[in-house]
Design goal:
By secondary structure, this protein is an all-alpha fold. Helix 1 crosses helix 2. The longest helix has 14 residues. The radius of gyration is 11 Å and the shape is globular.
Length: about 60
């Protein structure tokens, strides 16, 4: 489990937001991605993803 929240350069699909959250909290990436898909169906997932994309810095 990482101590900082940064978007990785490898292991990402779109912007690395889900990979960053998974690495930070020690969760499987597929579980975090599934959560964003479910929240996307409700209508809030896309907004949260874009905001996190802007706020979470890139690695290195």
């Amino acid at each position: 489990m990482s101590s900082v929240l940064v978007r990785p350069r490898q292991g990402k699909w779109i912007a690395g937001v889900c990979a960053a959250i998974a690495n930070r909290f020690g969760l499987p990436k597929w579980l975090v991605r599934l959560g964003f898909v479910i929240f996307g169906l409700v209508g809030i997932g896309e907004i949260v993803y874009i905001v996190l994309w802007i706020l979470i810095p890139k690695q290195g």
